[in-house]
Structure formats: C-alpha cells, structure tokens
Amino acid sequence: MKRNTNHKNDMNKNTFNNDIKKRNNSSNVNKTKKIDFGINYVNTNSVLHQLNGVTKFVLFLAWVTVVLTTFDLRLILALIITGCTLLKLTRVPFPVYKPLLIATASVLSINALFMFLLAPQQGVEYIGSSTLLLSLWGDYSLTQETLYYLLTVTLKYFSMFPIALVFVFTTHPTEFAASLNRLGVPYKIAYAVSLTLRYLPDVKNDFVNIMHAQQARGVDLSKNVSVLSRIRNVAKILGPLIFSSLDRADEISNAMTLRGFGHNKKRTWYSLKPMTKQDYAVMGLITLVVTLAIIKRVMATELFWYPF
Question: What is residue 34's predicted lDDT score, i.e. its pLDDT?
Fold first, then answer.
C-alpha cells in the first residue's frame, strides 16, 4: 500500500511539473511574439553601430540636404531604397518600427489630400502641361500632373523617415554628445541633444500609458469607429502627453541645476568614441554625394523630372 501511494504521489508531482513547464513555455512564446515599438537606441552590434555618432549625424544632415534640393523622383526613389537598406543593416526587427511606418504613411497621405484640396492645380502649374484623368467640379479635376506632383512630394518627405530611424537606433546619446563636444560644439548644447535622444523612449512610454488610461475610460481607437472619431480620440491623448512632457522637462532642468550643471566651462566625457578611418571614408563619400546632388540641382533646367 505504501509503494502504491508513493507511486501515485510521484505521478502527481510529474504531471504538476509538466503543467508548469508548459505554462512557462507558452508565456515565453508570448513574450517573444510581443515586441513593443520604440524610437530609442538599440544595440545590435551592426556595422552602423561601429561608426562614430558624428559620422551618422553628418549623414543625416547630408541626407536632408539632398532631399530638400531635389524633386527628381529617380533620386528620391534611390534615397528610399538606400535608406531601407541601411535600416535593414541595423538588424532592428521590423515589428519595432512597423507602427511608426504605418503612422508616417498615414500622416503623409492625409497631407497629400490637404495639398490637393488647397491647391488642386499645383502640379499643372509646376510641370506646365495638363492631362485630365478624372473630371470633377471646378478646379478639382484630377490631372496626371497633379497626381505625379503629389506622389513626388509624398515620397520626398517619406525618404527622410528611414535615415532618421537609422540615426536614432544606432547612435548612443551620451557617445554622440561627447563627439559633438569634441568637434567644438558647447557641451551644454551637446548635453541638450543627448537629453533629447534619451527622452524619446519616455515620450513613447507616456503615450502608451495615456492611451491605455483613455481606453479604460471608454475612448475607442480601434477600427470600430470612424476615421474622424479616431482623430478626435487621438487628440485626447496628445493633450495630456504635451502637459506631461512639460512637467518632465521642468523636473529635468531642476535636477540639472541642483547638480551644478553649467558652472564650469568644460567637462569630461566617459563615453567618448574616437574617429576611425572608416568614419573619415564615409564622410568623404557623403561629401562627394552632396556635392554631386547640388551640382545636379544647379544645372537642371526644370524643377521636376517628368517622364510623360
């Protein structure tokens, strides 16, 4: 009788342990599947992470300069493909920035709609021809030139999105601030840049917390409501987010004042990364590309490249 009871107890313990293992495995699977989005530094030890923060900042500024000086769709598409390639080289998983991608595409689409409503014949004026596609009331008839203009401008703005994510994902805030200070930027400005980069994850967390609080109060942000209702509900989130950001900025400034920030003219940096030959080579390539883009813009006879 004792042997049977011991055997039953062992069987019960084994089944209990197996149940616990299954629950742990399922919870681990759920944790790996759930990846929160973010806009902060992610250390994946990629090739871009090895570059100096100043090099990546110069790349970002050069990228914006090239984008702002061109309306050539060929160059804009090349920038988008290059930016997406660099974003893939960061090794940051796509689900991390997928919500940002969807939000950016939505905002740019709404921007294109308002551009058409405010200036429906802007493309015709810039390109100098008119090919009717859809006849509507008044000046709101959709032309091929206007559609091409809206597509070019939308992709022009979108081409800056990948390189911005590359800069944020691969640049450590403290190391970047130290590099800027080494180039001659006052350390107060460099430290302000560092605080800005460090503050982005906090803004994201505040946004998520406020969104959850508003949803608990009955604010619906799902597809069950109309687009206008969702826009109004998002406005209910942005208001508290702005006020919480102002309060946090006040707390940070008070903490820095209590620690004596700004009393000395210089400061030392723990996370100072030196420039390497690879950084200088990348900067040389950036200078060449920006120079060629400016020469192309000056020598171009027309603002838009229109193949039709």
Answer: 37
> What is the distance between the alpha carbons of residues 32 and 30, in angstroms, rounded to a whole number?
5
pLDDT band at 38 (very low <50, low <70, confident <90, very high): low
CA distances from 45 to 41, 116, 169, 268 (A): 11, 44, 11, 26
Distance, CA of 126 to CA of 48 (rounded, Å): 39
CA angle 239, 242, 243 (to 5 degrees): 90
How far from 224 is each of 110, 216, 220, 227, 237, CA to CA, in Å? 20, 16, 8, 9, 18
Q: How far apart are CA 130 and CA 118, in angstroms?
A: 18
Whole-angstrom Cα distance, residue 148 to residue 126?
Answer: 11
Say yes or no to pLDDT of 86 above 90.
yes
Q: Beta-strand (E) ranges in 32-145? A: 132-134, 142-143
Residue 270 DSSP class: S
Crossing angle, helix 73-89 and helix 160-170, to 10 degrees?
A: 20
Token reading at 91: 């090794």
Summarize pLDDT for 92-146 with one digit per residue, the tens: 888 888 888 888 998 999 999 998 888 888 888 888 887 877 777 777 788 888 8
Collapsed DSSP state (helix, strand, coil) of residue 30? helix
pTM above 0.90, yes or no: no
User: Which of 208, 209, 211 lies closest to 221 in space, CA to CA?
Assistant: 211
